[in-house]
Design brief:
Structural class of chain A: alpha+beta
Number of strands of chain A: 27
Shape of chain A: elongated
Number of strands of chain B: 1
Oligomer: heterodimer
Order of helices and strands of chain B: HHHHHHHHHHHHHHHHHHE
Largest sheet of chain A: 11 strands, mixed
Helix content of chain B: 55-70%
Number of domains of chain B: 1
Distance between the termini of chain A: 163 Å
Shape of chain B: globular
Number of helices of chain A: 12
Structural class of chain B: mainly alpha
Strand content of chain B: under 5%
Strand content of chain A: 25-35%
Largest interface: A-B, 54 and 66 residues
Largest sheet of chain B: none
Number of domains of chain A: 2
């Protein structure tokens, strides 16, 4: 009876949602990673019928964002706030295949509907300024120099009617210097139907999120048109974070980071030099036991009542062999693959989850070695590893080297490498070179580069845009290099911390889907780290001195020349006497008469005095 | 003075020696050309060879090189260098082109020196003209001047401007005014500033025109030849338009020189001044600097009407100091013409000071630049101070030469004043 009732309720609820033409669900996926890291991936998705959206009925779609999108004719929007670096070597493939992350800082790209490029620029300006206010980020600094129009790297994710596709303009802006922080998280959470009052969003707290080794907040808005149903506008908000479990647990009893005492170090005892005073850190830390309340400082306070009950709010990716403790009343559902399980939280129940450390098997305890493989779900190997760095030294010129490694032993990988560089890095495209090392031998060939789209920078007007389509054979590494020159700026164009350097945005790598039948354009996305480019700096303290010195040099040259050209030659003893000389002569004459007069006077006095005693 | 006698054999030996030296520097010291091409003293934004290569690469890949901030040189250089074999595959062709340009400049100098114009022009004969330098010495001083060699090995495109200017003067002194106008139009097309040399060059052409079809009226002569120069420039611009596909090359080549939008350090006085300039006064001072640069043309042309070649020499000296993007290639052009006035050198007063200052700046400039950019132990003021010294030294040389030329002229009226102390009132 009870079951029938709940089924009925469920049917009623879903009917209700369908009639309201709006659905919402949220999910948190936890996946322990090697080296005491934990990936927490929050996903919130809501949608509304496009017709309702156009009639200003937003329901679960955030009204503040919706109005901005309508005002700027934005058909599809992607916004990213990212901090930190994804350690692909130890953590493996990125969550969502990299589709929900950006480069360090803030990244925004959108498809705007406009008749002309100028109109699109105007709408883009409106959009960035409005989003800047909404998300408390410096998005209004995305001006012409930071905006590009990528040609190959991005494709719309949503389903757009053919009538609008022709008029859609893709604009891409990036702010690598932006520091993502709590003031960006708060407006992000405000867009959620349950805010951070209920559901998995209660775990999100600025102190924890921005303490993570890597975090990425994403907002994606796109229209989706499932077959046979009306089109819907979908907003997906994603937060991915990699927590350092040890660091997150630390504030409990020891908030100040300090070296662990010797007996608490986890050492690799198999090393030959292992002794009481030498320790090689063990590859795998045993601190894989954690609970949600320890990591996030709180538990999930009851599920969000608006969420679709068909989607379990919390999932955990660990093998079935491991024991997991959850709060009373929570239903655990193991997935058939044996590598993950999900939890349904009944209404009005606080959810906590605790994962004890892996059980150590008998006999292994002696050498302290712990087997990793069976306790963790092994991450997929990414399709490509990418590292980008500067070469050269000095503040005059340099080079950029990107190391792209295809780890697959038998599949080649085709991708698009995109850079949007600031205008003061003048790149020399003719020096671009792709060098390959690996199973196909060492050679330098441009056959790796299939297509290049290049839009050079214009001083103070626009940045460089470089898109390269490349193909890397299996098990090889390609070094993509090019040279650039650093230009010196006007002294007012430097930021107050000029000697810190200028941030250069991450390169965007889009690996193309080799399966052409699939609707997805990109099989995998990744971003390199951003770079810090130091420019030559003038002396900021002496504009007046420079103006004075240079003007003096010019005045000396001009004055000397003018003098020589204008004045007449005469012999040294000819011509009228110069004013100075005449004045000198006059002065001399006057002094002479003065002296003469004085002498005469004195002589007179003496002459007067002398006759006085004469009568005696 | 037999050592300076110009014979075909000696000329050939000189040119061969100069080209062998350059070729040896290109081929035997493989790192040197790129090192010199990267020096700010040689490569300015408007003459850099690396930027030329970038422009060429973009041009060959159908990207407009003028729709970017790197290439600011004349459009016709692009098809010229595309016709050459690729620099990466066959650098010798490029080397030969630059060596050839230097040799042509030396040949033009030989002709200028051979004409004796410096000592005896149409309206004036110097009492000291017997002591003039032989053409061979003048050419040798140009070809073996370290500044010339460095510009050639650094493949600055200023080399072509130098060649065009020297050819314009050589055509003028040999009585071919049309050739002079064409050559000067080429120079102006490549670097813009040679346009300011037009008035004295017209006078030089007028003075040296051949008697058989001489035009009597200066106005008529000037109008015809200005029209020729304008026509050649128009044709060059039209060809550039065909090459570049649009007129956007004008703001990118000449506009950059007028507005100094690229503030790359160089040996001139402009870059640091406009780095430190307050934004509201930028346009005003740009106008003042250009006005200052062009104000010498009228004064010198009028005052030294009887010696137009001296006006050209002095103007080139002034441009080498005060133009927007000067390099040592401009200095080498000025220093190439100075030996023509060997006969007035005894009248100069500061030769030792000038030589010492120029040597001082030559050696300390690169050192201070290194301290600023690479070592980080000095700041921008170090290099700026050296550019000030360099500019002052050169302007002192120009002033001193002006003085000597004027005194030489004056002594024709007052032959009894030779060797006496004089003053100016």
């Amino acid at each position: 009876m009870h079951r029938i009732f709940s089924f009925f309720l469920f049917a009623l609820l879903s009917l209700n949602f369908a009639s309201a033409s709006s659905v919402y669900h949220e999910q948190l996926v936890l996946q322990p990673l090697p080296l005491s890291a934990l990936l927490a991936s929050f996903n919130f998705r809501s949608s509304t019928a496009l017709s309702a959206f156009e009639a200003h009925n937003f329901r679960f779609f955030p009204r503040s964002l919706g109005q901005i999108l309508q005002h700027a004719d934005t058909r599809e929007l992607h916004l990213r706030f990212t901090l930190g670096r994804w350690d692909a070597e130890s953590w493996g493939a990125r969550p969502w295949d990299g589709a929900r992350e950006g480069g360090t800082g803030v990244e925004l790209w959108a498809w705007l509907e406009a008749e002309t490029d100028e109109e699109a620029d105007q709408k883009w300006l409106t959009l960035t300024n409005a989003l800047s206010g909404l998300f408390c980020a410096s998005l209004n600094f995305i001006d012409g120099t930071r905006t590009t129009r990528p040609v190959m790297s991005f494709q719309p994710e949503g389903d757009h009617p053919n009538s609008t596709v022709n008029n859609m303009h893709l604009l891409y802006g990036v702010l690598p210097h932006e520091v993502v922080c709590t003031e960006n998280l708060t407006p992000f959470l405000k867009l959620l139907p349950c805010k951070s009052k209920a559901g998995i969003a209660t775990l999100l707290d600025g102190h924890k999120l921005f303490d993570a080794s890597w975090q990425s907040m994403a907002i994606d808005v796109r229209p989706v048109c499932p077959d046979g149903q009306g089109c819907r506008l979908e907003i997906e908000q994603t937060i991915d974070m990699v927590l350092d479990i040890e660091r997150s647990k630390r504030p409990r009893d020891n908030p100040i980071p300090r070296p662990a005492p010797g007996h608490e170090l986890k050492c690799d005892t198999s090393k030959p030099y292992h002794a009481d005073d030498t320790c090689f850190p063990a590859d795998y830390s045993t601190s894989q036991d954690w609970s949600l309340s320890q990591l996030f400082g709180k538990t999930i306070e009851r599920p969000c009542p608006l969420t679709d009950p068909g989607v379990p709010p919390v999932c955990l990716n660990v093998p079935d062999s491991r024991t997991v403790f959850v709060s009373h009343g929570v239903v655990e559902k193991k997935n058939p693959d044996g590598m993950s399980r999900c939890f349904d939280i009944p209404p009005e129940v606080d959810f906590n989850l605790s994962l004890p450390g892996p059980e150590q098997k008998e006999g292994e305890e002696g050498n302290g070695q712990i087997e990793v493989t069976s306790d963790l779900v092994k991450s997929k190997t990414p399709l490509l590893y990418a590292e980008r760095s500067f070469t050269g030294h000095g503040q005059e010129r340099g080079g950029v080297q990107t190391m792209l490694r295809n780890p697959s032993p038998d599949n080649e990988v085709e991708f698009i490498y995109m850079e949007s560089l600031p205008w003061f890095m003048r790149i020399y495209l003719h020096t671009m070179d792709a060098r390959i090392e690996g199973s196909y031998g060492h050679n330098s060939s441009n056959s790796l580069i299939e297509e290049v789209y290049y839009r050079p920078a214009l001083d103070r007007a626009r940045g460089t845009q470089l898109e390269v389509r490349m193909r890397i054979p299996p098990a090889s590494t390609v070094f993509l290099t090019y040279d650039f020159e650093k230009s010196i700026l006007r002294y007012t164009e430097y930021p107050p911390d000029a000697n810190r350097g200028f941030d250069v945005a991450a390169a965007v790598i889009t690996i193309l889907n080799s399966d052409k039948s699939s609707p997805r354009f990109a099989a995998y996305n990744l971003r390199t780290t951003s770079l810090l480019c130091s420019l030559p700096t003038p002396d900021f303290s002496m504009p007046y001195n420079v103006i004075i010195f240079t003007s003096t040099a010019i005045a000396l040259a001009f004055g000397g020349m003018f003098n020589i050209l204008v004045r007449r030659f005469v012999a040294a003893d000819e011509g009228p006497e110069s004013n100075l000389k005449a004045a000198g002569q006059r002065l001399k004459g006057r002094l002479a008469t003065l002296f003469e007069r004085l002498r005469n006077k004195r002589a007179g006095v003496v002459a007067e005095k002398q006759p006085a005693p004469a009568p005696q | 003075m037999d050592g300076g006698k110009v014979t075909p054999g000696r000329t050939m030996a000189l040119l061969a020696g100069a080209s062998v030296l350059r070729l040896a520097m290109f081929t035997l010291l493989p790192g040197l050309p790129d090192l010199l091409a990267g020096r700010v003293e040689i490569s300015t934004p408007v003459t850099s060879f690396k930027r030329l290569q970038e422009g060429l690469f973009l041009y060959n890949h159908n990207v407009s090189p003028y729709d970017g901030g790197v290439y600011h040189q004349a459009p016709l250089l692009l098809p010229l260098f595309s016709l050459l074999p690729s620099f990466a595959a066959f650098p010798l062709a490029t080397y030969m082109l630059y060596i050839g340009a230097d040799l042509l400049s030396a040949r033009a100098l030989l002709r200028i020196a051979g004409s004796g114009e410096a000592g005896e022009s149409a309206l004036f004969a110097s009492p000291r003209r017997e002591k003039r330098a032989s053409g061979l010495v003048v050419a040798a001083l140009f070809l073996f001047n370290p500044f010339t060699i460095a510009s050639c090995v650094g493949r600055s495109t200023g080399v072509f401007t130098t060649c065009a200017i020297l050819h314009a003067i050589a055509r003028a002194v040999s009585g071919a005014p049309l050739g002079a106008m064409v050559a000067l139009s080429f120079a102006a097309y490549l670097s813009m500033y040679p346009l300011l040399l037009l008035p004295p060059l017209l006078l030089l052409c007028y003075d040296r025109q051949l008697s058989k079809h001489a035009t009597q009226s200066l106005t008529q002569f000037a109008t015809t030849h200005l029209a020729v120069a304008a026509g050649v420039l128009a044709a060059l611009f039209w060809m550039s338009f065909l090459v570049a596909g649009s007129w956007e090359f004008l703001p990118s080549t000449y506009g950059v020189q007028l507005t100094l939008s690229d503030l790359a350090p160089n040996v001139g006085l402009w870059w640091y001044f406009f780095v430190e300039m307050f934004d509201s006064f930028r346009s005003f001072f740009l106008a003042v600097f250009w006005l200052h640069l062009s104000c010498y043309v009228g004064g010198l042309t009028v005052r030294l009407r009887r010696q137009p070649l001296a006006v050209l020499t002095l103007l080139l000296g002034i441009f080498a100091v005060f133009k927007p993007y000067p390099s040592i290639s401009d200095t080498s052009l000025f220093l190439a013409l100075v030996p023509l006035y060997r006969h007035v050198v005894p009248l100069m007063r500061y030769t030792f000071v000038v030589a010492a200052v120029i040597m001082y700046a030559t050696f300390l400039g690169p050192a201070f630049y290194h301290l600023w950019i690479y070592a980080g132990s000095g700041n921008a003021n170090f290099f700026y101070a050296i550019t000030l010294v360099w500019g002052l030294g050169q302007s002192l040389l120009v002033c001193d030469l002006t003085f000597a030329v004027l005194r030489d002229e004056w002594e024709v009226e007052r032959p009894e004043m030779v060797g006496k102390e004089i003053r100016q009132i």
